Structure formats: structure tokens, C-alpha cells
């Protein structure tokens, strides 16, 4: 099993909470499909796609970094974690501009039900991205400071799995919010 | 570097990128949007999303080779969440 058992408990718990949130959103969307459709038209699917590409590229760097660390190719893993981290930071910066654009054009969580869910769902996800950036920064520093030993692998795999979870939750949000109009 | 890249997860990553581009293409402009409320198209986009989710779980998070119980737990999550979302949508 990759990583710490406790991390899997956390990941599964987190995914259960998101499963509930996804279904609450779809349930309430069904009560007023036209309002949600109209509101969703204002979201640019291209933005959603760019976020997805960024997180997938980031996850890819992490996959290779874990493989490099396992093989003891020490110089490479921290560099790859740094690239993954940069993709995460780009995600946050773009999200900031997307939120800013919405607020400037008068759209806030109180505008209507769709935007309330849009801000809540993407906001909770963004919080996960910020925590993930912290995790990646920690792994980058740790691996840069000294060569990785077997005891580091559990830590590296745990952090990597958390980051992949952030990626997969976004994949669902992309489909639910940006594509399903 | 070469030995790090020649791996199943590399193929999966390429498939994930293609699936994202495909769902973006399907979900915008004059395709699904032109047929509002088309349940088949909607369910199709959702299925693509959950195939991607499963790839990330199995190949990036390495559940494919994890203990069976752990793997089944996450497989069940994928099936249950995908099914409830689609059913939730379709009964509306």
C-alpha cells in the first residue's frame, strides 16, 4: 500500500464529504434547471479545462517524482516536486483572477443558488489546493536537504496521494460546473 | 529519465489529457449545449469524468496494486458517486 494508512482514512473521508456535496449540488440544480443553466453559461469551459490540464500536469510531475525517489535518483525528485508546486501555484493565481472577474461583474455567492454552490464547491477545493501546495513545498525541502531513505518513502507517497486526490476532485467539479450547462 | 517515463502511468496520463480535451470539446459550443437537457450527452460527460477519476485512483495513487479491500472501497466510491449523480440528474 502506498503511503500511511491514516492518510488513506483521511482521503476516503474527504472524498465522502465531496460525494455528498456533489449530490447536494445536482439535487438542487434539478429543482431549477433553467436558472443553473443560464448561470453556468457565464462560466468559461476553457477556464475549467485549463485548471484540469494544470492539475493533471502537476500530478504527472508527482508520479515521476515518486518513481525517481524510489529508485534513489535523488536530484530529480525535488526538482519534479518544485514543478508540481508551480502548477499548483498557477492554479491558485488563475482561480484568483476568475473570482475577481466574477466579483467585478457583480457576481457573488449571494447572486443566486448556482453561484452559492459555485463559490462553496470551488472554494473548498481551493483550500485543498493550498494545503497541497504546502505539502509539496514540505516534500521539496525535505528531499532537497538530504537524500531520501526508505523512511521518507511513506511520507512522499502519502503526500503524493493527497495531491492526486485534489486532482481527481477537480475532474468531477470541472464536469459538474463548467461543462454541464 | 527514460526508464522513469516508460511505464503504464505515462499512457494513462496521455489518456487523461485526451479525455479532458474531448470532454471540453463535447461540453462546449454547439455540441451538448445545442441540445439542452440531452440526458445521454450529460451522462456521457459524467461517465468520461469518472473514468478519469478511476484512472487517477488506480494508476497515480497506485490502488491497482494496493490491498484488495482498499482498492474495492475506492472502486465502490467511483461507481456509487457516478451512479447517484446521474440518477439524481435524470429523475429531475
Short description:
The complex is a heterodimer of chains A (181) and B (92). Chain A is mainly alpha-helical.
Describe the structure.
- The complex is a heterodimer of chains A (181) and B (92).
- By secondary structure, chain A is mainly α.
- Helix content of chain A is 85%, strand content 0%.
- Chain A has six helices and no strands.
- In chain A, helix 3 packs antiparallel against helix 6 (150-179), helix 4 (76-104) runs antiparallel to helix 5 (113-145) and helix 5 (113-145) packs antiparallel against helix 6.
- The longest helix of chain A is centred in the last third of the chain and has 33 residues, at 113-145.
- Chain A starts with a helix and ends with a helix.
- In chain A, 45% of the residues are buried.
- The mean pLDDT of chain A is 93.
- Chain B is mainly alpha-helical and 92 residues long.
- Helix content of chain B is 74%, strand content 0%.
- Chain B contains four helices and no strands.
- The longest helix of chain B is centred in the last third of the chain and has 23 residues, at 68-90.
- Chain B is flat.
- Chains A and B meet through helix 1, helix 3 and helix 6 of A and helix 1, helix 2, helix 3 and helix 4 of B.
Radius of gyration of chain B: 16 Å
Shape of chain B: flat
Chains forming the largest contact: A-B, 49 and 47 residues
Beta content of chain A comes to under 5%
What structural class is derived from the secondary structure elements of chain A?
mainly alpha
Proportion in β-strands of chain B: under 5%
Q: In whole angstroms, how far apart are the ends of chain A? A: 39 Å
Structural class, judged by helices and strands of chain B?
mainly alpha
Q: State the major sheet of chain A.
A: none
> What's the shape of chain A?
elongated
Q: State the low-pLDDT regions of chain B, or none.
A: none
Q: Could you estimate the helical fraction of the residues of chain A in percent?
A: over 70%
DSSP strand count of chain B: 0
Average the pLDDT over all residues of chain A and give the rounded result.
Answer: 93
Annotation field: number of helices of chain A? 6
H/E series of chain A:
HHHHHH
Percent in helix of chain B: over 70%
